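Lab notebook page, bench 4
Experiment: in silico fold of construct C2
Operator: M.H.
Input chain length: 134 residues
Purpose: comparison with the prior construct
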Amino acid sequence: MDCIFCKIIKGEIPSYKIYEDEYTYAFLDIASDSYGHTLVIPKKHCTNVLDCPDEYLSAVMASVKKIALHYTEDCGFDGVNILNASGEAAQQSVFHLHFHIIPRKKGDNLDIWPLKEKFELDMAAICKELSLVK
């Protein structure tokens, strides 16, 4: 398999490891687009949230929470953004499940939510179409 994240887990590509346990691996994103930008991945190859076994997805989310708490309680950050893209249409670029943790400080001037446009939408119709509650 030619997955860059699988190669990082195996140690074939170096990384700046932040955390590791039986199911997950977390490391700094080398994009260097923000201070402490961290990726959390399962050690089992999964494409995204949609095909990840529940056991691994639960472990990934537990690691995301553990790291986010560490950043806010121990490292002086005021909050975190937690982001995921699942599928090419959602702008997923590496097809191994990963969550981004972006540590934030008040006044850091990062604009993580670039979509500012507001659309006129029929919320009741959308809810009727998408709801799991019938």
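Observations: The mean pLDDT is 94. The helical segments are 4-10, 54-73, 123-130.
Next step: discuss at group meeting.
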